[in-house]
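Data deposition worksheet. Section B asks for the primary sequence of the deposited chain exactly as it was used as input, without tags or linkers unless they were present during the calculation. Section C holds the resulting structure in token form. Section D is free text for depositor observations; keep each observation to a single sentence. Incomplete worksheets are returned to the depositor.
Section A, Depositor: J.P.
Section B:
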Amino acid sequence: MIKFKTWWNNNSNKIIKWFCLTLIIGVVLIDILPSWFNTIYGFINGAVFNDKKLSSLADNIVSVHAKLLTLGFLLAVFIVVKKRITLINFSVILFISWFLGLYEFMDKYVHPLLMNTGIFSSFLRSGATELNPQYTRLTLFLLATIILFVLSYRNKTRTIDRSFILLINLSMVVTTFIFHLAIPMGLLKYTKEERLNTYVTNAQELPVEFFCKNKTCIFFDEKFEEKTEKFIGNREMSEQYSGFVNYSKEFFSHNENLVYPVYGNAGDFVGSTSTFQLCLFKDKEFICAFDNNSMKNYGTLSKAIFAFLVSIAHGIWIFGGLLLLAMHKTRAIKKIAYPNQ
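Section C:
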């Protein structure tokens, strides 16, 4: 027992460091890299044409992206409190980010709590009562980064560790913003607008029986009383969007509006699902049509591409940045740059 205690005292620091390195390398090799390669393979292998495979692919890569985002946030929080970060510190933060479900905890508890305070009221769309939980994560992430920026700016509180992690977080913010503009707010938004315009044009020009194929269509007489015998499609969907129907009824109550269609797009928080909505007056009757097939899988594909690109960027910034920090501390960079000195 005495020999083991002596051995442990002499070797415990090395053992703990090796354990920490094993954890870090294990997460990278067992979870992060396979997720990236599986996503690439899925795109090449036709997962985009299979609902279940695409959904599974998106969920997997979004999970990795979520954990990396949480890791960056916790790094910022830790270095705000502590001036320096060690291998053991990073390993504990990595473990919390990866295995304790903090990302889901923020969605389930922190986001509703902040919503109840009303601080996000100005971000709600007209008539909406819920907001994407991403706003909470982004707010907390930016708050931690701002505090870290202030600490890194002041000479008394600046350390090389804080400067490195500040650069990591700023890089994460910038790349997330760029990819968000390029994919959800760029490619996906453009595709939605183009298909929605086509949807409206088809409703105006095509025969009703052809247009309503694979859609939910509700028919109303000139007094906006439903013709139940002509109903086509999913009754549950029609009830789900009854608010849009009521809005259209009010809009068409003014005769000058009869020549204009009412249309829009409804979807979930992250745009994974989209339903085109349309009401118009045609052939002496009102038609309200709902279509959740025109954008089928496009939102999920957009989410998968976005999470894939951002997770790669986050992974490079976090692990690459901390590796450079470690090399700087151990003077390894100088030894590599000047091997003869």
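Section D:
Strands lie at 216-220, 262-267, 274-282, 285-291.
The first strand starts at residue 216 and ends at 220.
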